[in-house]
Amino acid sequence: MRGPKSIEPFFYPKSVAVIGASAKAGKIGYTVFSNLKKAVKKIFPVNPKHRNVQGKKCYKNVLEIPSSIDLAVISLPAQKVPEALAQCARKKVKAAVIISAGFSEVGEKRSTQRLLNIIKRNSGTRVMGPNCVGILNNHSGIDTTFFDRARMKAPKKGSLSFISQSGALGSMILDWTSTQEFGISKFASYGNAMDVDEADLLEYLGQDAKTKVITAYLEGAKHGRKFFEIAKKISRKKPIVVLKGGKNEQTSKAAGSHTGSLAGSAAVYDAVFRQAGIIQADDMIDLFATAKLLEEEPLTKGRRVQIITNGGGFGIVAADQMLAKGLKLAKISGRTRRRLAKALPDAILSNPMDLLADADAKSYGKAISGCIADKNVDMVMVLILFSIPTLNPENLALLRKPSRKIKKPLVVVATGGPYTKKFLTRIEKAGFTTFNYPSIAAKALAETAFYAEFLRKG
Amino acid sequence: MRGPKSIEPFFYPKSVAVIGASAKAGKIGYTVFSNLKKAVKKIFPVNPKHRNVQGKKCYKNVLEIPSSIDLAVISLPAQKVPEALAQCARKKVKAAVIISAGFSEVGEKRSTQRLLNIIKRNSGTRVMGPNCVGILNNHSGIDTTFFDRARMKAPKKGSLSFISQSGALGSMILDWTSTQEFGISKFASYGNAMDVDEADLLEYLGQDAKTKVITAYLEGAKHGRKFFEIAKKISRKKPIVVLKGGKNEQTSKAAGSHTGSLAGSAAVYDAVFRQAGIIQADDMIDLFATAKLLEEEPLTKGRRVQIITNGGGFGIVAADQMLAKGLKLAKISGRTRRRLAKALPDAILSNPMDLLADADAKSYGKAISGCIADKNVDMVMVLILFSIPTLNPENLALLRKPSRKIKKPLVVVATGGPYTKKFLTRIEKAGFTTFNYPSIAAKALAETAFYAEFLRKG
């Protein structure tokens, strides 16, 4: 079986076997078993050395288990993996995650070839890995990742999914989301991709109702054309944000992504990704910012941004950034101008719109409502300088979002240190999408504007 | 008197008068007086309404004070400012900060013209403002800024100076530095620049022994040619990092910087700034990062960066960023390679150099020492993924800096959430220069490489 249905058991298994389950705390086989035990009732430890693991009867091998198995997680020394996988195939296990390393990534050919033969011969068992941390379904609690939960705050439940060859980069994004107002849906690190690859996962997440935004770290696509065909289809339905590692000739060598169709310069990638409607991130900072914007805000209808500020200089720096990133400065209509001139007699009603140093939550509220309702405005960026000596930051932090009848992106940006951050966090908690720097917000807004244009082109 | 000597009394006054000193807490005239009182013994409140302000005898006007005055700070309603300044001139006050607003910035012509006449007629009193927050000398405690010290953490004493037309942007940078390992030397917000302008301040800071790095937010230069001539000279002695607001035709209008020589496109600015050896920031994020790098690290001798990482993907993303910003990937010498191959038998000794997931502080230490000593390496970027499941972040946070005999920039980058930040902060406290994102560090490294090249061109 192929297609998204065959990926489902990785994320929603009803029965799980942990091959290499351990009774010794600190071992990967211990952590994985203990994490999965919390999420699945039908769970079976497999380890010939034990009769009992963490209070559960232990089996010599997967074939002995008196139940069908949806998911097997294999954490064994590399040379023992092929036999264990062969047994999974005989048992008609639907999905297997091979955590073990020591295959093609270290140049180990014999075990790699044996594994490949087993994968090719059977059509019933989908395989993720080897050399991976596997999957996390943050809604069902299915978790093969052995990330350090005791120390790292668990991510919130949400609708952002992330796929990455590298497990380490996955742990980075989970760490980051723990500070955000939204959360993670599904995560998959697929390692050497001997069977399940980025394209399979993309296709699966594309049809997954619990995934709203797909983010990915890719070094190469195992099958370039397949990946792009799938991406092109999926990106019509939901946004895909990709951070591509190895964009240049020098770095793509380090990434080991020599696979024909994907090699080339940063410019080539850019063109191909654009064609597939893929939103691009240059760095983790963009990946995070764009994912956040897509998660929290409606998609923009155009490139015209209205900036509202309480500091002239801050507004101008932001406007320069908008233009640098390919966005446009909106021009509010005569009607909006007349209304705001009455409501905010002292404000400078240009773009940036300067509410001056004595602006409070009320004047910001009026300016935001006026601008967001204007047909000449596609998005609104609100800048707040909390550190202006004469203002009352406590009052500014009381800012509330306008009614959501008008669906346009609205972001709040405040730059500074801990003083600024304290008040910006309150604004974020009140439901606003916030950023620390105009340039970061501008890049994210520009990327989503590109995506909106891609969708409109149809 | 003109030249840097005439600016000195703003930062090192031996006697101060506060014109408009107030006995009422919360008033600007109260805060300014109470802040200055802590730093200067010979301080005189001036206010015809009071006989006594904060325990000091109060004078009707500056002429009545039985002592010469180095610095007068004027915080009065706009229409009263010209007379007060005229009295300062008669008194031969060396420097006057006019905090009051309500002049050319709001189109008020009469008071502006009167002020200008007084400034032109006298040659003894240098004037800063009006419409400014004035100055902060973080070493002597001289502070006319009325920033909210009770709420905002005071910046550390250090050698970063900052000039800005806007006081608000100054408060932003002070807020930011409170989180940094280095601190602020001098800050000046010069408002409408009717007398003292950005060029005067640049010249002064250029010869100031307590200033190592000059940062500036500029919307325009009052006298473009004068500014660039001075910048060209100063930048030979110490780095100048400028964030220019209003780089584009649309935004320069908002910035009100129509002053001939400085108008134009972002590209024109870029060229002119480069010629003067000015390091450019696109946004606050660059301004902060570049200032930090210049403050904490020696200047690079070239563009070749060696990346050391414990996560392959993270390394590749960083390498892409280096190339995108115009830096080069270093190639370590055969000798270094052989030495490191013995010391770190499992590491992948390319660029990025991958120490793999089990790297510890010891292996990082060896790799850093080896690379920084290599004549083919100009700078070293160390990437640490603290969230890799199998590693011990506590151990990695024990990383110590190599001996400083070899003067090359060395930065540590770690991306993530609170878990990552906790360990990165320890690394920063151990004396490393740290950043949260490879792209931000790469931009700062590239800007300082440009500056080093400017200096070499002679």
N-to-C span of chain A: 32 Å
Q: Largest sheet of chain A, order of strands side by side?
A: 9-8-11-10-12-13-14
Biggest β-sheet description of chain A: 7 strands, mixed
The structural class of chain A is alpha/beta
Question: Secondary-structure blueprint of this entry?
Answer:
The structure is a homodimer of 458-residue chains.
Chain A: H1 8-11, E1 15-19, H2 28-37, E2 42-46, E3 52-53, E4 56-57, E5 71-74, H3 81-90, E6 95-98, H4 109-121, E7 126-128, E8 134-137, E9 142-143, E10 157-164, H5 167-177, E11 184-189, H6 198-206, E12 213-218, H7 224-237, E13 240-244, H8 249-255, H9 266-275, E14 279-281, H10 284-296, E15 304-309, H11 312-324, E16 328-329, H12 334-343, E17 348-349, E18 353-354, H13 361-372, E19 379-383, H14 393-396, E20 410-413, H15 418-429, E21 433-435, H16 438-457
Parallel strand pairs in A: 1-2, 1-5, 5-6, 6-7, 10-11, 10-12, 12-13, 13-14, 15-16, 15-18, 15-19, 19-20, 20-21
Antiparallel strand pairs in A: 3-4, 8-9, 8-11, 17-18
Helix pairs in contact in A: 3-4, 6-7, 10-16, 11-16, 12-13
Outline the structure in words.
- Two copies of one chain form a homodimer.
- By secondary structure, chain A is α/β, with parallel strands linked by helices.
- Helix content of chain A is 38%, strand content 18%.
- Chain A has helices spanning 8-11, 28-37, 81-90, 109-121, 167-177, 198-206, 224-237, 249-255, 266-275, 284-296, 312-324, 334-343, 361-372, 393-396, 418-429, 438-457, and strands at 15-19, 42-46, 52-53, 56-57, 71-74, 95-98, 126-128, 134-137, 142-143, 157-164, 184-189, 213-218, 240-244, 279-281, 304-309, 328-329, 348-349, 353-354, 379-383, 410-413, 433-435.
- A seven-stranded mixed β-sheet of chain A has the order 9-8-11-10-12-13-14, with helices on both faces. In chain A, strands 15, 16, 17, 18, 19, 20 and 21 form a seven-stranded mixed β-sheet that branches.
- In chain A, α3 runs parallel beside α4 (109-121), α6 (198-206) runs parallel beside α7 and α10 crosses α16.
- Chain A is elongated, with a radius of gyration of 25 Å.
- The model of chain A is unreliable at 257-262 (pLDDT under 50).
- Chains A and B meet through α5, α8, α10, α11 and α15 of A and α5, α8, α10, α11 and α15 of B.
